[in-house]
Structure formats: structure tokens, C-alpha cells
Amino acid sequence: MIEDEARKWLEQNFDVPRETWEKLEAFVAFLKAEATEQNLISASTLDQIWVRHIVDSAQLLAFAPSGPGQWIDLGAGAGFPGIVIALLSDWKVALVESRAKRIDYLERTLAHLGLEGRAEVAGMPVERVETQKYDVISARAFAPLPKLLNLSARFSTDKTKWLLPKGRNAVNELEEARKAWDLDFSVQPSVTDPEAGILVGTVRGTNIRPVSGTNAGAAAKGRRKR
Hints:
33% of the residues lie in helices and 20% in strands. The protein contains 7 helices and 7 strands, in the order αααβαβαββαβαββ. The protein has a 7-stranded mixed sheet, sandwiched between helices. Helix 1 packs parallel to helix 3 (49-58) and helix 2 (18-34) packs antiparallel against helix 5 (100-113). The relative contact order is 0.14.
């Protein structure tokens, strides 16, 4: 898939109004400008943003339940997939990010795109995010699956859909996690990389204890301490 094909894929799979197209374009331009100041995405993907990041994020909506609802994106980084989800759907998205420069970037991005109220930044480590249940949990290049489950299963019910792009290591991570967790997961192919996989499913239970501190919930929801 090349950039023109990525745009065509969006047209074919989403009813994208002109205003949303303009915001997607504005997001890409803002990201490219910010990338000169900090390493938001790999430099090798700057000329492939629509394929490697926009469509790679948007494809998760095909596996999401009917919205709107509450969506949490762990390790939001440059805003993928969380900001793309907020732009293309009615989901309300919490963007969890612990790095100060990324937090600042995400907050300015939401303001630039007029997404306040549709998305919010939880500027803190995931261990400190207040416990509540979400309809969807996503994470892109955040942590290996066993660690990710330990850190974030407290946000999940048996109906919560987990959407986890895992690249070419998806099968191995799933096999490792199943040693400790009762998972109803499948590996779905990525439209942007035929060798990459997306872990999709629900968590039914576990036979291990969550890592220390994951139930703390001490920080204010959705915002970092100032």
C-alpha cells in the first residue's frame, strides 16, 4: 500500500466528511512540523504517514464494537491510534502517556484539531491512571502482551474489546500470554502489512496477580498533575 492507496482505502471504508478530511490533513501537517523538534515517529515513516500511521490506526475500528463508548489508548505517543479514532468515530478516547514532551504535544494537538471533549490526555504512567472500565483498550508498540495485561486488565471487563497491533510478533506474544491468562483472542491480518498481526479479543480471566501498584488509581482522571 502506498500513500494514494491509503487515502483511497479510507474513502472506501469510511464515510469521511470534508471537515474530517481537513482535520486529518491538519493532523498530518502538525505531526510533521512537531517531528522536527522531537522523535514522535520513526523518520523512515515520515513520508508514509497515511499508510504506516493513519490507516494502520483506522483499521482498528473494523474490530471495535458499536460505539460510541469509552476507549482507552495506552502509550498514546504521537497519537496513534487514539487521535485517529477520535477523528473518525464518536468514541470518547482517553490518551495515556507518561512522557512530558509527548503529553504537551498531545494536548496541543487536541486543541489544534478541536478535539477537546472528544479526547483527553491522561498524562501519567498507566499505573497511576484511575481505575475504571472501558469498552475498548488499544495499545500500539506499548509493551509485550503479558506485561500489558498485568498493567491494564483492571480497565477491562469480560466484554471489553482489546485491539492491539503487534506487528510480526503477534503470534509469539499471544502464545506467551496464554500461559497465564484466559484469553479469547485471535490474530487478524493488518491491511498495511501482510506480515503483521492485530490481536483482537477479550480477557476472560487470569491465574496470576496483577503487578504491584496497578490498582492504585491515585491520580486525577484524564489529566496530569500540575
